[in-house]
Amino acid sequence: MDDIKSYVQQHKQRFLDELIELLKIPSVSADPAYSQDVIDTANAVKASLEKAGCDLVEICDTPGYPIVYGEKIIDKNLPTVLVYGHYDVQPPDPMDLWTSPPFEPVIKTTELHPEGAIFARGACDDKGQMYMHVKALEYMVRTNTLPCNVKFMIEGEEEVGSKSLGWFVERNHEKLANDVILISDTGMISNQQPSITTGLRGLSYVEVEVTGPNRDLHSGLYGGAVANPINILAKMIASMHDENNHITIPGFYDKVQELSQEERAEMAKAPFDLDKYKKALDLNDIYGEKGYVTNERNSIRPTLDVNGIWGGYTGEGAKTVIASKAYAKISMRLVPNQDWEEITELFTKHFEAIAPSGVTVKVKPHHGGQGYVTPTDSIGYQAAARAYEDSFGVKPIPVRSGGSIPIVALFEKELKSKTIMMGFGLDSDAIHSPNEHFGIFNYLKGIETIPLFYKYFVELSK
Amino acid sequence: MDDIKSYVQQHKQRFLDELIELLKIPSVSADPAYSQDVIDTANAVKASLEKAGCDLVEICDTPGYPIVYGEKIIDKNLPTVLVYGHYDVQPPDPMDLWTSPPFEPVIKTTELHPEGAIFARGACDDKGQMYMHVKALEYMVRTNTLPCNVKFMIEGEEEVGSKSLGWFVERNHEKLANDVILISDTGMISNQQPSITTGLRGLSYVEVEVTGPNRDLHSGLYGGAVANPINILAKMIASMHDENNHITIPGFYDKVQELSQEERAEMAKAPFDLDKYKKALDLNDIYGEKGYVTNERNSIRPTLDVNGIWGGYTGEGAKTVIASKAYAKISMRLVPNQDWEEITELFTKHFEAIAPSGVTVKVKPHHGGQGYVTPTDSIGYQAAARAYEDSFGVKPIPVRSGGSIPIVALFEKELKSKTIMMGFGLDSDAIHSPNEHFGIFNYLKGIETIPLFYKYFVELSK
């Protein structure tokens, strides 16, 4: 398809300008301070879908942030592709580590992006990857090459657990009826070696609170005589991994799917350079669960990480205080067959059980999601593989990702269809970090590849 | 001495008003944002000493905040009392737990203070207790009953380690020459049972930093494969106490002075109600070092407490991030014979030694001070004991406090004189906590008792 290649080259600048406008709106769903910006972003997405050629576009109200729904139905007898994406972004902090303001997009070149990359929060996750689908639709509509029906469902709460999306999907089976779900919210190995994510980890995210004395105390007068909630919290967190970095929560591993030696050997084929990996992160060594290599630790194995901790005096200088309370945000990445709600319960029971007398603890479940695996023999996967091979000239490798898209499992349960994760980002794009960026090559390559997926999916569906 | 009692009654309202004015200035030495307020407070103290009758008052510059020096020399052949106090205060946070603004003093009654107490940061620690000495001087000067020479040395960095005070004392041996040092910066058992603090704990205060990856990472893509600095910090902190809550730093206890069974039996005589203690703090149980009771754990035993911890995402909602860095402020309370600089070194060496590969750690010593013991057979202690007995009608009990006044040991080393700690606060006064307060009874009783100390000290010195 040279048409798409030349179309992309012809409209390249406009495609970049449109994405940059979208990135300027700080749609941080985790922080209520940005709620109006989140709404504004939903409206911007709606307008872009209308311009791209959808026949019907709606802002669908939910208990939380709205979902933007759009569709172009050309023939009821043809297959339907449902595109999912999200228009909300992660909080930008720590702000001081950004080399340019997170919501003032700029194009800079990097070692991996010699053609330049757009630096902004959400550039890759997920505004940039979501917008590739909008532009792919524009191409197919304008050139009259859309081979099937298409529906868009773009949500605004992915970074905080997609609560409203679940609510919406459960109530709109018919509206969302489809033959395959297409998502670009993952990465690929490199610009030379594309890959398709076939597995995702689940997630259980909780916040814990440890309370000691009913007020902050002078550490001289009380130190040594009462339980210090920060020391206790540290002790409780530390006890959750044993000396082999196995998680100690009873029952945590009971349902974990162990991979066969063959599967692990297949995984090991993905190119990986440990020295480069360490160098990129300035690490003197890696760290993790005994008996597994890095690419297994961050994909097929469950984890427990503290994402945030706070308590006591954290200002300038010194304060000799024993805090009344200490807090932590803790998330567990789960693998297929681990049920996130069951894991959340196991965590809660365990955390309460190990709390020593002298303190009281509270566990507040935040959100979660199930893990997922895409069968590589499915039509959807085959269509995606051909699309990548055409546009990159290289066969994509199927990989299991450590990340979570909590609603993929929900889609299968509610909509009975498989999800194909066509990601075009790179691990080095710093999503969820300061200086998030998305390569111009990747953005345009995505727009090129997506119409090929439609073409092959329709062909293989016949 | 009914004169002093009636004088206090007669001027009670003015004594309260003057202290309240002083408490309105937020002299938080730990936070540079308040630096001008700290200076303003020094000037206010200078003016109060001049008004009270000092012949000479100076604002003495130091590398840090100034020291207010005042003196009234009536006869070179008479003994000299050096009064020490501090005009700086602890940071007020957490602000939201204050029932009235920390720097807008109000008088409220409490169960222990039926005559009312002044609620404000610094009310007890140490503006209120320091100002008792100013008013006691005023009385002795106006009634011409000052029986000896008096010097005042009021500093502005006690809450951050008194660095400049050490600098000042070392350079002013002659100016500060004295026969006894008098400090009111401690508490007593109750308004019915006065006590005199004869021992103080030393202090070593450090800040630690644990660094993992060079940037915040997505916990899904990297979780399980790299060391999480928060998890590691928790593990390191947890490892610093064993199952008996003994501190595990090698050499930490080597120089700790063990008390004899007799001394411990003497200590046990101090009235203590464990149920009341737990109830006052809403604790279901106490917690501490095996083999020692509460009153020993917080006085004759060294401790290690985390005073603050922070890292990762601590805002609203959820963020699935692995932080690049985690921090903690850690203080160790020390007992006589433990050298704070040596302990700081032991801590640093140990903390660096237990850091796993995969992270790097930094230890930044904040400040510290030595422990101290006042001999109960000294003239100073005897004079103080009689003064309390006269004004309270009850013999005071000598007690060891868990708190630290880092410079008391320095005074002995540099000025070769003993320090008497005549404290009038109560443990329940919430110093270093929200809603700090100081009983009106205690404030006025202090002003009454201090002139008696001068009287007896001069008599016993003859």
Automatic annotation (TrEMBL), chains A, B:
CDD domains: M20_dipept_like (cd05680). One of its GO terms (molecular function) is peptidase activity. The keyword Signal does not apply. GO terms for biological process: proteolysis. The keyword Hydrolase applies. Residues 199-357 form the Peptidase M20 dimerisation domain. Keywords: Hydrolase, Metal-binding, Protease. InterPro entries: Bact_exopeptidase_dim_dom (IPR036264), Cyt/Met_Dipeptidase (IPR051458), Peptidase_M20 (IPR002933), Peptidase_M20_dimer (IPR011650). This is Acetylornithine deacetylase/Succinyl-diaminopimelate desuccinylase.
